[in-house]
Amino acid sequence: MKILAIVGSYRKGKTIDTLVDRAIEGACAGRADDVHVDKLHLIDQRIEYCKNCMVCREDDPDKARARCVISDDMEAIYPLMEEADGFIFGTPVNMGQATAVMKTFVERTAWVFAKPGRRPIPGCPTPRTTRQKKAVIIVSSGLVPPLLRRWCDDATSLLRSHCVDILGAKVVGTLYAGAVEKRGIERYSQAAHRLGRRLTA
Question: Where do the domains of the chain lie, and which CATH numbers do they carry?
């Protein structure tokens, strides 16, 4: 099984990076020989903004992956996404949203891996792939506790719709690590580990 872990944090070794590593450990637990994981820090990649040229959206709908006209590091990332059986998405919540680098990444993958569908209205994206995939989502907030998550976490819904509508991946679990500046990371560590295990269950 191939898993692609995508880290949208600006800081390595901090909350999201650590919890993604715990999810990776969970995915590999007892199955290290059967699981291959690629981990990407988006901050290390040269990813340009989408130009809205619509070349990808208008590409042949029978293709597994549409063409993007932009030449940057996404060219090496697209094959990893296409081959992946499972995804781990991790991002801090900044102003209630996923980080800018994660949103840029999501925009650049949208019509590359989706084609115009018919629901809920004609033209909305539907996955190009018919392969069954899985995904887990990890988000964190330094200040906002889980009790108040509903008012400040639009990142999870963005990534969930991206997984389902673009990548054709069933979201098998999410984790909101809230108020980590007071609570610390460790109290969320086992939950992240369990998420990873769901990917390979």
Answer: 2-200 (3.40.50.360)
pTM: 0.96
Locate 164 and state its tokens.
């389902």
What mean pLDDT is reported for the chain?
A: 96
- Within 13 Å and on the Cβ side, how many CA atoms surround 138? 30
> How many whole angstroms separate alpha carbon 6 and alpha carbon 178?
20
In the chain, the percentage of residues whose pLDDT exceeds 90 is: 96
pLDDT > 80? residue 36: yes
Angle (deg, nearest 10), helices 100-109 and 74-83: 70
Round to whole Å and give the CA distance between 51 and 69. Answer: 9
Helix 15-28, helix 186-200: angle, nearest 10? 40
| Omega prior to 120 cis, within 30 of 0 | yes
